[in-house]
Amino acid sequence: MDKKKLDLFFNPGSVAIIGASENPDKVGHVIMQNYIDVGFSGMIYPINKNAKTVLGRKAYKNIKDVRSKVDLAVIAIPVEGVSRALDECGSSGVRCAIVVTSGFSEVGRDDLQDELTRISNKYSMPVLGPNCLGVMDMRSRVDTMFLPTFKLDKPKIGGVTFVSQSGAVGSTVLDMISHEGFGLAKFISYGNAAVIDEVDILEYLMHDDNTKVVLFYMEGVKRGREFIDTVKRFTQIKPIIIAKGGTTPDGSKAAHSHTASLAGSATAYEAVFRQFGLIHVNDIDDLLSYGKIFDTEGVANGKRVAIITNGGGTGVLATDALYLNGLELAEMSSDSKAKLEKVMPKIVNVRMPLDMAGDADDKRFAAAMDVVTNDKNVDMVMVIALFQTPGADSRVAATLIHYKSNSPKPIVVVSPGGNYAQVHNQMMEGSGLPVYESPSSAARALKALFDYSEYIRNTRDIYGKGIKKGK
Amino acid sequence: MDKKKLDLFFNPGSVAIIGASENPDKVGHVIMQNYIDVGFSGMIYPINKNAKTVLGRKAYKNIKDVRSKVDLAVIAIPVEGVSRALDECGSSGVRCAIVVTSGFSEVGRDDLQDELTRISNKYSMPVLGPNCLGVMDMRSRVDTMFLPTFKLDKPKIGGVTFVSQSGAVGSTVLDMISHEGFGLAKFISYGNAAVIDEVDILEYLMHDDNTKVVLFYMEGVKRGREFIDTVKRFTQIKPIIIAKGGTTPDGSKAAHSHTASLAGSATAYEAVFRQFGLIHVNDIDDLLSYGKIFDTEGVANGKRVAIITNGGGTGVLATDALYLNGLELAEMSSDSKAKLEKVMPKIVNVRMPLDMAGDADDKRFAAAMDVVTNDKNVDMVMVIALFQTPGADSRVAATLIHYKSNSPKPIVVVSPGGNYAQVHNQMMEGSGLPVYESPSSAARALKALFDYSEYIRNTRDIYGKGIKKGK
Whole-angstrom Cα distance, residue B403 to residue B385? Predict the structure, then answer.
């Protein structure tokens, strides 16, 4: 696979939409409208055999009629016409194509899908799909998704790239990512993988500087050996968080019926995931929950976690959560304790978890953050900021953001609650502080970060040799 | 403990606020303002030795100066004055009291706390606290919480009662409950339990018709044997979902430092929880997640779960989640399959999980719900409604609400996503359909419901004899 050609999917100079239409119910209409809405800077060529114009642009009866160079064709026409259209793209010099249309091997029509593979090879034209949503690139503003914007919030620009075999999981997780407020680099829905598969995509993303962490939903792997080889090198450079559908016997049957994937034995996959540093989650909520800590936090040098809280009960639950997740409650140095004894009011018992009481304000949070981020006995920090308490307000959020920007240690915030808490959570998330709804979900994310950091420390001399370290 | 006196906390005819103040920074100010804001229908007597009026009401120098009957006194003055004020309440015939003030056994002042117990006994006057937030009753509109309303959303009226030993966990979970959109009956924060403890509260709630399910955060039990005896009878009538802080060695130490609770061995508690039908969760998010299914759903007759989805990948993850939680994917009857074959489009493979494809609209959802809610092979239903897909809109939500109202089978909805999804989630939650963010969280809640149903089936002849079944 030519890497440069894969790049074209995300940065095309021009795009043809085969099946573009004035009818808002048509997929081709929504895709074209999205290109216009996001302010795509390249040429857009609608292809429609019956229309003179589509959405105010000159329409072409056939891709062959477009005289200029077309980098990317998005094919969204009924299944019967797809292979012919794809062949016409190839013969017209289109450089790559996305087949959105479904009705191929996922419904037993392997013959139709094989035809797409054959055409792609014939013209050396990379093809994504069929049965997929295509791609989104937050920087180039390419967006081939056929979902209207009112149904789907679009994320802001960031370092997370999401790869999904399933279109539905793809759009849902994108919508969740926007709602959570963290930033996206790219989105790739690859569907049945007639040509471009998970290995090609990972090889490409490994060297994509905009991608800091990959979230991956998959049901099965086509090229097992190559997948392992790629993953082994990939995880030395950046993390992959993977949700694999079909890890149980019942789920495996369901996956086969869904994308015709041979989901494989759960045990075999689990072993591979662990051995090669893939971070495995069971569901989409953890995909997001882990995604945000890897997007914003660096390396965890150890598993000793300081807990700072303005609510005693939540501190107790957090301590339980660390223990249940195999992390350790940090023991502050005597120097740190002495410093805190000086600044904290008498009712505060200076020990871990540090319960600063319900009237803790930004100054008390600042004093505690100052001490724990500088304590050599502390590897990571979990701050529980309950915004329902009298002392917690926007200054507390600003204080936490300040210490986040000035400390290399991983810091997570636990802030559950309603509107007042949510406003502050968005403020903190927007400044790169990962926020969680419970001590347990924060502890799980910290554990994933620690495990990955350990993996890299233990394997870089084995798998990491000769790999140029990413940023 | 006299049951009728405990009822007075929630339905007082008159209330005195000792420490009521014009100064908005004072706890007594916020409590009094809350009474006024919620439109409390009884008399309110502010007690303040320096003021003539507080918030426009005539103030009294001392509780003794109030000539009329006072049902409830809320004491929110510095710790030094509390026992004297409580004694004056007793001698003036006040019928019950809440001590909001902290600074008692949680900071080692057992002597001060014992004094409160002694005064309570002397006058046979039930006392809640000290070191607590008091109570909230959604029907009588009593609200002794000293948190301003802009920081804390207030829940709507419903069947969930939340009992919390910790004030901070209490206010945070209340705020989360409002945000989730499910309804509250009562809230009780009991703090150090100088007089009224967890046993008294459960004995009272057992026969409170407005309470359908109890959520409980506790760190330790004072009267172990009585607690077990009460719980054994309680769980035969309605469920208790319990989050216990300090179940791990580290957490237990933290709990001791927080509420001076002897958290006890995790294994011992776990054994008691399991044996007597308590539903145990590790964190506050699961407290809510389980709370809403018990609030709205009835009994699970078995563990066979039908999955209906408009996204194939999510159906695969849901199938995995059932398996991982010890539930079973239902196998539809041949009759059901025949019915579905007739109404579903050809692309839909009629089997479980039922993937109705991304263009499924309300009619397709209705056809599927009609079949599975009437299939004898189905005990519970998990509907995955991805509102990002082209076919899903408000009619789909309305359809699910319709089938919920017309079927005795437990039904849960999985609907992850941003604004468009959230609007519909609120619509469904408001009509008593529990909505979850992921297949895993829905599966865990269904499992808890099934386990509790099984517990009742297996124990009602042992523990349930002679107990009048609650509604």
Answer: 14
